[in-house]
Design a protein that fits this description.
Layout lengths: L1 E7 L8 E7 L7 E11 L1 H8 L12 E2 L4 E8 L11 E4 L12 E5 L3 E3 L6 H5 L2 H14 L7 E4 L5 H12 L3 E5 L5 H7 L3 E3 L6 H4 L3 E6 L3 H7 L3 E9 L6 H4 L4 E4 L6 H12 L7 E6 L2 H12 L6 E5 L2
Parallel strand pairs: 9-10, 9-12, 10-11, 12-13, 13-14, 15-16
Antiparallel strand pairs: 1-2, 1-4, 3-5, 3-7, 3-16, 5-6, 6-8
């Protein structure tokens, strides 16, 4: 099947993004075809576009970027049991060269979650990659439990916003770093303490923290070891921790997201109950020009909340 898509035919800057027709692979037995209503932008999108991940993902061109989708099922594979055409769903599909910056995308059926009625396609599309990254960092790897203290760096970022809400729902005391203009929002989302990183060095005011969720790397990551207790864990989504520092705490690791439909459904259920919400800071149309602007904003690291691409 042919679909309109925003693709790259070479690695490079945002000017490589172009609209094209793409022939999708045949639908597998356990796959569904999703009509894309919205997708979102994550750093992996422009890092891959620039060629930083070329060795890890040595794909043929053209490449359709994007690995978040919210939409409705347009067709199902022969062995798909629990999903029907017309259902509204969202997902973090497998990372393939047939991404979600397209009118249609293919998703494995076990990676789907139901879109809650009270959540828009834009709000749903913001969730999968960022929400699952937060969920896996806090719980699957970070083993966060009720009553523990967690520091989430860059709380106003795409991942941070979900991490704050998920940690709060799990009964943790939530500390985060953010510039002052975002403090009110983050407290509303559940942060117990917000530190302005422009004026305060978090490593001088915090101690006895159980878990650090690191979205920054570098000096911020190194300083984070000072505030952890002896059972402390540091989970990074950006860079491998220094070995010597890692030896001073119980767990220190860098993680890579695994798509997971069951975990996404857990987040969907929290959204249905009003306990987790998306903060969509910016929306652009799913066109070559719209994606270009969205990538340029994402690369500044100063977007508030998530950047969503709409395809209505």
């Amino acid at each position: 099947m042919e679909t309109r898509a925003i693709v790259i035919k070479n690695y490079g800057h945002a000017d490589q993004l172009e609209e094209s027709k793409v022939e999708l692979p045949e639908l597998g037995e356990h796959q569904v075809l999703v009509k894309v209503h919205a997708t979102s932008v994550n750093p992996i999108d422009w890092k891959l576009r620039e060629g930083y991940l070329a060795q890890m993902m040595p794909w043929e061109f053209p490449i359709t970027l994007g690995w978040d989708v919210a939409g409705e099922i347009a067709a199902i594979g022969s062995e798909v049991k629990n999903w029907q055409v017309g259902q509204k769903v969202f997902s973090r599909p497998e990372t393939t060269r047939f991404g979600t910056y397209a009118d249609y995308t293919i998703v494995d059926d076990h990676l789907l979650a139901r879109k809650p009625e009270n959540v828009s396609f834009e709000e749903a599309a913001a969730v999968p990659l960022a929400g699952l990254t937060a969920y896996q960092g806090l719980f699957a790897h970070g083993q966060l439990k009720a009553g523990e203290k967690v520091l989430i760096h860059a709380g106003a970022g795409g991942v941070g916003i979900y991490a704050i809400q998920l940690a709060k729902n799990a009964g943790a005391t939530v500390i985060t770093t953010a510039s002052e203009k975002n403090h009110a929002l983050l407290k509303e989302l559940g942060a117990d303490q917000v530190i302005d990183y422009h004026t305060t060095d978090f490593s001088e005011v915090l101690e006895n923290v159980d878990l650090v969720f690191d979205t920054m790397g570098g000096e911020v990551q190194a300083k984070s070891f000072k505030i952890l207790n002896e059972h402390g864990r540091l989970i990074s989504i950006v860079s491998q921790p220094d070995e010597e520092l890692a030896n001073t705490v119980a767990v220190a690791e860098s993680i890579w997201l695994q798509p997971n439909g069951e975990q996404l459904q857990e987040i969907a259920d929290l959204m249905a109950d009003g306990k987790v919400k998306s903060v969509v800071g910016h929306t652009y149309p799913l066109t070559a020009a719209g994606v270009t602007e969205a990538h340029e904003l994402s690369a500044t690291h100063h977007a508030k909340g998530k950047i969503v691409l709409t395809n209505e």
